[in-house]
Each structure stands twice: as C-alpha cells, then as structure tokens.
Amino acid sequence: MAKAFVSSILTANDLREGWSVFLTRDGRWSRDWADLRVAASAEEGAELSALGAAEEAARRVVGAYLVEIDAEGRAKLRRERIRAEGPTHRADLRRADALSEAA
Amino acid sequence: MYRYDEFDQRFVEERVAQFRDQARRRLSGALTEEEFRPLRLMNGLYLQLHAYMLRVAIPYGTLSSDQMRKLADISERYDRGYGHFTTRQNIQYNWIKLEETADILADLASVQMHAIQTSGNCIRNVTSDPFAGAAADEFEDPRPTGELIRQWSSLHPEFSFLPRKFKIAVTGSPNDRAAVKAHDIGLRMIKNEAGDLGYEVIVGGGLGRTPMIGKVIRDFLPKAELLPYLEAVMRVYNLHGRRDNKYKARIKILVHEMGEEPFRKEVEREYARLDVESLAAPAEEVERIQAYFAPPALENLPEESKAFERAKTADPDFRIWAETNLHPHRAPGYTSVVISLKPVGGAPGDATAEQMRVAAEAADLWAFGELRVTHEQNLVLAHVKKDDLYPLYRKLAGAGLDSANRGLVTDIIACPGLDYCALATARSIPIAQRLTERFADPKRQRDIGPLSIKISGCINACGHHHIGHIGILGLDKAGAEFYQLTLGGDPTETAAIGERAGAGFSAEGVVDAIERLVDRYLEIREPSETFLQTYRRTGAESFKDALYAEAG
Ligand code: SF4
C-alpha cells in the first residue's frame, strides 16, 4: 500500500548564495520558515516537486526536495528543523525566526 | 616552511581561473549541477546542510602567520566570522557563497593555499605530528616527507581516480601523535640497527563504518625508496581495490580481504617490477624541500627560565595552564605551546576571526611566525622561549584562547555533526558543550588526568570516536538522537579500536553516563594510572557495570 501523504513544504539551496531556502505561498524563495506553500495531498506534492525541478532548471536553486511537516507546521525531522532554524550550538547563528530549540 | 616555486604558484592560479570559469558556466546554465558537482568538489566546495562549505587544505597542519591572518580575513569577508579546524588538520568554512568562491580561492592562492584534493577519490592532504621539527622525542622532522608526498600525489594522473579517498599520515617520532595506524597509509620514522633512518610502513588502517588498525607491511623502508614503494602500494590498491561497493572500497578492506601476507607479497612483487631509480625523488629535490624546513634560529638558553618560574608563582592560573598546555621541546629553554580551541561550552575546533588573528600575532611575536593545526582540533606554536610564555599566555587569555585542558577530559574532539553536516545522524557539538560544562572544574579535570573523548555525528567517524578513550557515536533512533559509546580506543603507537560498551544513551542521558564512567575510573584506578591504563587492566566489565547499573 502506498504510504499516506504527509503535508510537505518545498526546500532547496539558493544556487548563488548556498543558504537553505523555502518556497513561500506567493512563490518566492525565503530563508525564513514563514508563510510557506504547503502541499496537503499527493497531487499537490507532485505539483510542488515539479515546481522544484523547474526552479532548479531556472538556476535559482539547487537540490530541491519536499520536507514533511507536522500539525503545527514544523518540519518533522530534526535534520530539517536545524536546516531551517540554523545550528543549535550558538544562539547568534540561529535564524531570526527560529522559534524553538531544534531538538 | 615550504614556499611554492613558480610551478606550484602558476598551477594553483590556473586552477582558480578554471574554477572561476566553471562557476560562471554553472550560473549561466552552461553546466548542470550534475556536471558541476564533481568540479566544485575537486576544489573543496561541498553543499552542506545550510549552505556551501569550503574545505581548505593546510598541508601537514603547518601554516604561517600570514596564512592564518588570511584565513581570518576570509572568515570575515565571505563567511560569518569563524572557521572550523578539523581532525584532518584542515579548516572549513560553513557559509560560503558559490558566486564568491573563486574570489576566496584567489585570496588563498595569494598566500600559497588552496582547497584542491580536499574531496574526491584521490590522495588527500597529508597529516602529521603538530610538534614536528620541535619535539624532544623526534628522530627527524616528518614534514619534508609530507611535502614530498604532497608534490608526488598532487594531480598524479594515475591516482586521481582511486577506488576511494586515500589518507596518509607521517610521524617522525616513536610516540605517535598523528594517529598513523588509523590511516590508509601510516609512515613511522624509525632507525635501523645501522643507525639509518627509514620508515615503518603501515597500511590499511581507517575508521568509519569498518574501523581497522593498520598492518605493518614493511618493517624498514630506506628513506630514498619512499616514493617508489608508495607507488607500488597505490598500484596494488588501484588494481585490486573494490569499485563495486563504496563501503568496501577503502584499502583497509582490500588488505583485510586479501590477507596481510598476500597483500604484502603483491606490493613487493609490484615493487620489484618498478624502476625504483626513476621513480625515487631526485636527491637535489629532497634537499631543496628539506631546506625549507630548516629549524629556526634558536638561541642557546639554559633549560630553566627564571621569568617563567616567577610568573608561575605569581599567577596560579598561568601555572595551571603551563602544566597542561606545554609540550617538551628538543632545545633547552624552549617549549611548544598548545592553544586550546576547547573552551567550556564552545564548539571544538571553532575559532573566530579575532582568535585567528591573535594566534597569528602571538606566532609573530614569540614563535617565528609559524603555527600548526592539530588533529585534535587545537593550534600549536612549535618553538617558544620559556622566557616568553607569560606575555604569550596573557595575550591568548585576552582572546579566550587560554583553556588549560590539553589532553584532559574537556579537550574533546567533535565533528560538525547534525548542526552542519548533511550526512549526520545526530548532533555532536552540543554533546561536547554539555560535557565541557559538566567537567568544567579545573581541579576535577586535572584529578581525572589524561582522557580523550571523541564524538562523531555519524558512522563516517570524522570525530575519530573509535580511537577515543571514550568514543561517542551519534545515531538516530526513530527520530530521536541516540548515542553509542565505545571504550578503550587509542590513536597512538599502542593503537586500539574502542569496544562497544552496550546499549546506547539518549541525548539527555549520555552526559550522565560518561560521568558514571569517569567516577568508576576514579574509584578503581591505582595510583597514577590513567583512564586507558585502568581500562586495559580491569577490562570493560567494571565500566559497563557503572554505565548500566541504574538502567537495570
Ligand atoms: S562523522 Fe558524519 S556527521 Fe560527522 S562530519 Fe563526518 S560525515 Fe558529518
């Protein structure tokens, strides 16, 4: 049986600057995890993935992929939370919007 | 120190120009990421968790104060004001922009540095003893050997596409401070009965998924035969090393699968076929390299320094620092100084731009303008007059570089782990931070004595956990960070791979677990016994008992 789809957002790295970025509702790439476009179904997920591939082809980003989120809209995996919020060992390296301990 | 000749300089500059063009073509769309990736990796540029990461080679860990200042400038100009010194004696920048990378490489080239061969299946940066050329127990400075290998292996066409990456370490002293038995090839300088210097050649060590201690395949290799013999080893590996499975592609697996004796025979057979004379480095070239490493002009000094003794009496913090952070120098009145990059609560191996500059300035003032990076992620000033130690210490203290913990429980090695690394399964740095906080008390640390804790954030073992007296491996268990301990590892001439202690611990539990281990050691040690000695005497059981007593 196919795995049930988990709501996801689209992430990648900015091609020029390298920073991890997230696709917002209005179609911009943002360093902040805020107002992100969410795929809630498998179809929307496929659409978002296709958009990622197109953005890579347009050389705005590199390595686009979907990130599963939980009910609160946070990334499910710690890896992805750290990627979104910054390294956890120094407060000054956290991104401005880092809401919580990544752990 | 080695200085580039015209050929070296031109070559590095050409590489910068090539990369500038490659990056431009990537950004213009002429190259896809698939095409570009191997090119950027050949220049040390990785894509990590947060951004691009640039790994810069520091050959055998030696650099000049000017080079260190350039590293500081780069961290400020192109990164976020700090860099990470690694267990490979390199430096990594974590927040690099692709569009600025060629400029960084040009800046590096201006001080004779580069990021070539810091990635990929080639012979990587040769590592060595951080006290090379200074240590009291040394036969000979191992760095000319390192430089010879660097020149021989740089862009060696036959060895640019090996089955897997390849790491060589050299030590010139019987006390191994370069972990040579944990490298693909380890070279240990030794003297034969006739009093001639040569190398003991050790092959097939390595950490990672399948940790192994290297095997001695040649007891004594005359110095002049080094390159031809290495060539023979590399050829056997290149021919027989596995390319079908990247987890089985390192030379350690080949030596293991072939068997030590057949492997040795194969190398000797290949060696017998080689034209040794034409492959050996010409004597003039060896001398030319040797001359770059001529020792600095040391003064004739008495062993004892009055100024040093006075300062120790006057400033107890200085005395404590001097007890732990100095290393015996071969010349009377001199010492080597370890600048610890392990402050309580800090990220092991991280240094800010300001700290790099202070270290460079200290090197200029008191250490012939030269620094070393250690595989333990600290810095070293190799030749310092004891008379100068106090002002040096004061300068370091002003920049937070005065941690008095070399070799102690808080001198922790940790890889970047999940805070930076795309391959990580768990974080390493925060564990190091909490351990250093737990064991912060200087008196307690000194009472515990020599104890190395090494932490890796995944099975790749960049944090050398297998050869830590206590090793910590961070894993992921159903979404939770989870830490497995190994005990009794040893990176030195008595090398050993640590034994797995049993079930792992949660991120919350691992610091307590290590404290229980340390307390058990304090309970059962005999007078003046180190942790490792106690472990070897009593075996794992008494420690496991302490680890899991409460779990029961
Ligand atoms: S050990 Fe793993 S987590 Fe740590 S730096 Fe190496 S690859 Fe990354």
Mean pLDDT over the residues of chain B: 95
Strand order of the largest sheet of chain A: 3-2-1-4
Most residues in contact: chain pair: A-B, 24 and 29 residues
Q: Looking at this structure, what is the CATH superfamily of the largest domain in chain B?
A: Sulfite Reductase Hemoprotein, domain 1
Calculate Rg of chain B over CA atoms.
23 Å
Task: Note the main attributes of this structure.
heterodimer; A: 103 residues; alpha+beta; 4-stranded antiparallel beta sheet; 23% helix; 20% strand; globular; disordered C terminus; B: 552 residues; Sulfite Reductase Hemoprotein, domain 2; Sulfite Reductase Hemoprotein, domain 1; 6-stranded mixed beta sheet; 5-stranded antiparallel beta sheet; 19 helices; binds iron/sulfur cluster
In words, what does this structure look like?
The complex is a heterodimer of chains A (103) and B (552). Chain A has a four-stranded antiparallel β-sheet, sandwiched between helices. Chain A has one domain (8-93). Mean pLDDT of chain A is 92; it is low at 99-103. In chain A, 33% of the residues are buried. Chain A is globular. Chain A has helices at residues 42-57, 78-85; strands at 8-14, 20-23, 29-30, 61-68. With 103 residues, chain A is of the alpha+beta class. In chain B, α7 packs across α8 (260-273). Chain B contains 19 helices and 21 strands. The longest helix of chain B is centred in the N-terminal third of the chain and has 23 residues, at 6-28. Chain B has four domains: 6-109, Sulfite Reductase Hemoprotein, domain 2 (Alpha-Beta Complex), CATH 3.90.480.20; 142-292, Sulfite Reductase Hemoprotein, domain 1; 306-397, Sulfite Reductase Hemoprotein, domain 2; 413-547, Sulfite Reductase Hemoprotein, domain 1. Chain B starts with 5 loop residues before the first helix and ends with a helix. By secondary structure, chain B is of the alpha+beta class. In chain B, the strands form four sheets. In chain B, strands 16, 17, 18, 19, 20 and 21 form a six-stranded mixed β-sheet that branches. The mean pLDDT of chain B is 95. The A-B interface holds A 13, 15-20, 56, 59, 62-63, 76-79, 82-83, 86-90, 93, 103 and B 26-27, 29, 33, 47, 49-52, 80, 94-99, 347, 418-420, 424, 427, 429-430, 433, 476, 479, 481, 507. The structure holds iron/sulfur cluster. The site of iron/sulfur cluster (SF4) has 13 residues of chain B, from loops. Iron/sulfur cluster is lined by residues 415-417, 421, 423-424, 456-458, 460-463 of chain B.
